[in-house]
Design a protein that fits this description.
With 957 residues, this protein is of the alpha+beta class. It has 4 domains: 43-227 and 241-252, Cytochrome Bc1 Complex, Chain A, domain 1 (2-Layer Sandwich); 277-403 and 426-494, 2-Layer Sandwich (Cytochrome Bc1 Complex, Chain A, domain 1); 520-726, Metalloenzyme, LuxS/M16 peptidase-like (Cytochrome Bc1 Complex, Chain A, domain 1, 2-Layer Sandwich); 736-866 and 888-951, Cytochrome Bc1 Complex, Chain A, domain 1. It has a 7-stranded mixed β-sheet, with helices on both faces. Helix 3 (106-113) runs antiparallel to helix 23 (767-791), helix 16 (558-584) runs antiparallel to helix 17 (609-621) and helix 23 packs across helix 25 (845-859). It is globular and about 80 Å long.
Length: 957
């Protein structure tokens, strides 16, 4: 498989920016064209403000959400040596008040009140700020957003608080393997390169005896790195181009231009004459992986021809005779991906990632030798024009029929891309592959050699000698003999380069069928229900086919749940070589297990969907369980189940709350207890019985017709339905908490942080009850966050959220804290809920209505992509909402909810200490006994020790 890494900002974009805008560009009257997809009806204009800020504006009269993003070519690579994490700290501080809007949190609350979202991220070479909002309120939202770059206050009052927030973020992810492994990589590379440094920040790197001094350093850092000439802005609105341009010019023209140079990082990532090297890491989770990386020159200037993409297509191929095919045949690996994993503008890393088996871990050197043989075969025989033509065709089609992403993410991506490509190519550039370029392919291949190789092995039990400074990652770094990278002559016969891809669509057409407003029932028989919707609204020639194969035995016991999971994995494994050419040709499939059975989902160009579905169903119904593959996937599943208790504490407690109230839903511990009972014989028997009784539901949606939908249905009937007894397979059930019931479950989690989840469960499943919980979650979200995280500094992970289970509404309050006990968090949460009715009572009618409209605008937001609409239809079918109008029904219920009735709801439900489920974990360094026993905060709570006993006498909704 190919992967695409987000590429950081690089120094070449200074040249590109100058070439594009011209050195004489001094006012917003200089505008330039942006190459867009023929499928894109939006209007674009690019220009440069007098302060040298580069801008792209997008006018979309049909949008109901507007958005903006600003990207600065400065990130953690700009951190001073004595203030590591300062760029990240600045990102936090920038949101806390401006001269025009001095109140901390005003920006966030205005956006939330009008149905929007906001976010930011700091990476090595840039920082990206972005938000969206109901389009009717965009001008005022944009005004608040702009002031953060015109006149931020960096209020001294919040300096210590945000330092604690950054430290809480660091501790919250201290067990995260991505960060732990990255810390080991940083420790292994050239210490002269800024990428080797700690980037998040913590209490030590941001320490200061004096908040005023820390603020002074922060302002100095801001003025040394934030400048209009290093900023790119993307603005996406409903208004016409001239209006948006006027809004931008009047607001962002005041951002100071300090004429700062963009920081470059010319130092090599690896110390000279040290490669090849081996980095061995002990991960927190029991996973086995290898990454083989090669240092090569930056590839960013070659975006028009993408030589690295061409090579990664071949290395990561998964068809017959490929590297992955050989590694799987030997039992060495389950998956493989390749591509450029990072690019600093001076240097890039081309990486091949392997998910190893225990056997592959033992023979990792052989994996490398086989990889180098495959690379050598590509070097000598892999430069073929038809490979280029196939890749170009798929990129051309992807661009021609490009679907929209949300304005929120689109603006963020465009602002980032403006630093990396000529602005005329910020949209088209990722899809360009203009010329067959064998010389450029040779240039990439010439760097895939031992003297550029860096190998990372990550697994339990590896020999390690050191620990990283902050994450305590155990690692070792050693030299590798170049000989292990030498291809062996006898290995060449194992491989075969890909043949021409028969799945590539060369003739694409749209159906003549008129788009349908909602799906219609196509077929209905006992145990078989089929829905169909022709839809060309998005002008994409793709369609999606779902089939839900429900079975009463798929998930009725923990053992059968495990067997279903293993069958799904073995099925996908068996289909890999056949389906990978289809995947390259834009025809994808998914198979996944769920509460009621197995779902197959096919998406892509419809011409070959029949062929793919025929293969999937034929393989499923005639699957032969092979012992060697069963062993590999059973071990993999077992490790995954064992790893579940090493996840983020707040995620574990949320999962536990769902497990306690939902049936049939089995815990990972229950599955672990039975997984060793699975063997080849009983799994083969289970496969033959799984669909003896079944209920089948299908949906065909998109660029398709009735005849095509019926043909696909006929396959399902021929392979499964016609041989089965037809039954009704019920959905999952939710246990009902009593009106005065309060229950608590304590979890043991190996993490220093406390975790807390309080669920307030709904009384019924009516639309009015769902509406009131939706309003409660909306109003509580920003206020709970502000009180618990910003003011009381209880932790980095803090949120109030809708917490529904199937059709049962609820609100959840979640905190993960490095310092507060569950008792303190609960006390503060109860205090918050006690004040909530007063907060709503003091809210004027207009603000209450604004909060209602914020939910409604999100609910009724127009679909922007075929997949988005398909997923919504499929969810409605699963919920048995056959009019496909759940959004409208909920919006109507929200609209008719009065402030008076909502306050009554708060008093009866949120303030009332009943229908409460509390799941907590105490940080491993705290006293567990204090959590449950002898604490007034938890007096009256039923302590849950066993789920079966807890739900034994409960009724279901």
């Amino acid at each position: 498989m190919i992967f695409f890494a987000k590429r950081p900002v690089f120094s070449l974009c200074i040249v590109l920016g100058t070439l594009f805008f011209g050195s004489a560009a001094t006012s917003s009257s200089h505008s330039f064209s942006v190459h867009k997809s023929p499928n894109d009806k939006r209007t674009y204009e690019a220009f440069e403000l007098p302060n040298q800020m580069k801008v792209v504006i997008i006018s979309d009269p049909d949008t109901d959400k507007s958005a903006a993003a600003l990207d600065i070519a400065a990130g953690s690579g700009n951190d001073p040596d004595n203030r590591l994490g300062f760029a990240h700290f600045l990102e936090h501080m920038l949101f806390l008040g401006t001269e025009k809007y001095p109140e901390a949190g005003e920006y966030q609350e205005y956006i939330a009140r009008h149905g929007g979202n906001h976010n930011a991220y700091t990476s090595f070479q840039h920082t990206n700020y972005f938000f969206d909002i109901d389009a009717r309120f965009f001008e005022q939202g944009l005004d608040r957003f702009s002031q953060q770059f015109v006149s931020p206050l960096f209020n001294e009052t919040y300096v210590n608080r945000e330092r604690n927030a950054v430290h809480s973020e660091f501790t919250a992810k201290i067990k995260d393997d991505y960060r732990r492994n990255h810390a080991a990589f940083r420790a292994a590379i050239n210490p002269e390169h800024a990428y080797s440094r700690f980037t998040v920040g913590d209490a030590n790197t941001l320490s200061s005896d004096d908040n005023a001094r820390l603020r002074e350093d922060l302002v100095k850092f801001y003025e040394s790195n934030y400048s209009a000439n290093l900023m790119t802005l993307a603005v996406y609105g409903k208004e016409d181009i001239n209006t948006l341009k006027q809004w931008v010019t009047s607001r962002f023209g005041d951002v100071k231009n300090r004429h700062l140079p963009m920081k470059s990082h010319p130092q090599p990532l690896f110390r000279q004459n040290t490669l090849p090297q081996l980095l061995q890491i002990t991960p927190n989770m029991d996973k086995m992986s290898m990454q083989l990386s090669f240092s090569l020159p930056s590839q960013m200037e070659y975006f028009r021809n993408k030589p690295d993409y061409y090579i990664s297509n071949l290395i990561g191929h998964e068809g017959a005779g490929s590297l992955l095919s050989v590694l799987k045949e030997k039992g060495y690996a389950n998956s493989l991906s390749s591509g450029t994993s990072m690019d600093t503008g001076n240097e890039a890393l081309f990486s091949i990632n392997y998910q190893l088996t225990p056997k592959g871990l033992k023979h990792w050197r052989h994996c490398i030798e086989l990889t180098m043989t495959w690379i050598d075969l590509i070097r000598t025989a892999g430069k073929k024009k038809f490979y280029f033509e196939e890749q170009k065709q798929m990129l051309d089609l992807a661009f021609k029929f490009q679907e929209r992403s949300t304005p929120f993410h689109f603006a963020s991506r465009i602002a980032n891309e403006m630093h990396q490509k000529p602005i005329s190519e910020v949209i088209r550039g990722s899809y360009l592959m203009e010329q067959y370029s064998p010389d450029l392919y040779d240039d990439v291949l010439a760097h895939l050699t031992p003297e550029n190789a860096f190998v990372t092995l990550s697994a339990k039990g590896l020999k390690t000698e050191s620990k990283t400074e902050r994450y305590d990652t155990e690692y070792s770094l050693s030299s590798l003999p170049p000989e292990i990278f030498t291809p062996k002559k006898e290995s060449y016969a194992l491989f075969k380069l890909p043949e021409e891809n028969a799945f590539i669509p060369w003739d694409i057409s749209m159906t003549d069928n008129k788009s349908m407003s909602v799906p219609k029932l196509l077929e209905k028989q006992k145990g078989f229900e089929s829905w169909f919707s022709s839809d060309t609204d998005f002008n994409t020639p793709k369609s999606i086919y779902y089939v839900n194969l429900r079975s009463p035995i798929a998930n009725n016991t923990p053992l059968n749940s495990v067997k279903t999971s293993l069958l799904v994995e073995l099925l996908k494994d068996e289909l890999t070589e056949f389906s990978y050419p289809a995947y390259l040709a834009g025809l994808n499939f998914q198979v996944y297990g769920h509460v009621r059975g197995i779902t197959i989902r096919i998406e892509g160009y419809p011409q070959k969907q029949f062929v793919l579905l025929n293969k999937i169903l034929g393989t499923l119904t005639n699957l032969t369980v092979r012992q060697e593959r069963l062993t590999i996937y059973a071990e993999k599943l077992k490790r995954s189940l064992e790893n579940s208790d090493k996840g983020k504490p707040y995620e574990q407690t949320i999962t536990e709350a769902r497990l306690l109230l939902t049936s049939p839903l089995w815990s990972d511990r229950q599955k672990l207890d039975v997984i060793d009972k699975v063997n080849k014989r009983n799994l083969q028997q289970f496969a033959s019985e799984l669909f003896d009784e079944t209920e089948i539901v299908t949906l065909n949606h998109g660029n398709t017709g009735r005849a095509n939908a019926l043909n696909l249905n006929q396959l399902v009937k021929a392979y499964i339905y016609n041989q089965a007894r037809h039954v009704i397979v019920p959905s999952g059930k939710v246990s009902q908490l009593g009106d005065n019931e309060r229950a608590i479950k304590h979890m043991e989690i190996d993490h220093p942080d406390t975790s807390y989840v309080l669920l307030v469960q709904g009384r019924d499943t009516s639309w009015d009850e769902k509406a009131k919980f939706a309003i409660a979650s909306q109003i509580a979200a920003t206020r709970y966050y502000r009180e618990m995280r910003t003011e009381k500094q209880l932790g980095y992970v803090v949120f109030a959220m809708p917490f529904s289970m199937f059709e049962v509404p609820g609100t959840g309050f979640v905190v993960q804290s490095p310092k507060a006990s569950p008792q303190l968090i609960h006390q503060e949460t109860r205090n918050f809920l006690a004040r909530f009715i007063s907060l709503v009572a003091a809210m004027d009618e207009s603000k209450f209505e604004q909060n209602k409209q914020a939910i409604i605008s999100n609910l009724l937001q127009k679909d922007t992509r075929l997949t988005q609409r398909s997923n919504r239809y499929w969810t409605e079918i699963d919920r048995s909402i056959k009019d496909f109008n759940s959004r409208e029904l909920l919006a109507e219920a929200i609209q008719r909810t009065s402030k008076e009735s909502f306050m009554q709801f708060i008093e009866e439900v949120l303030e009332h200490p009943g229908r409460n489920l509390l799941v907590i974990s105490t940080g491993k360094n705290k006293q567990v006994a204090e959590t449950i026993s002898g604490q007034d905060q938890f007096e009256g709570f039923e302590v849950i020790t066993d789920k079966a006993r807890f739900i034994k006498n409960k009724t279901f909704f």
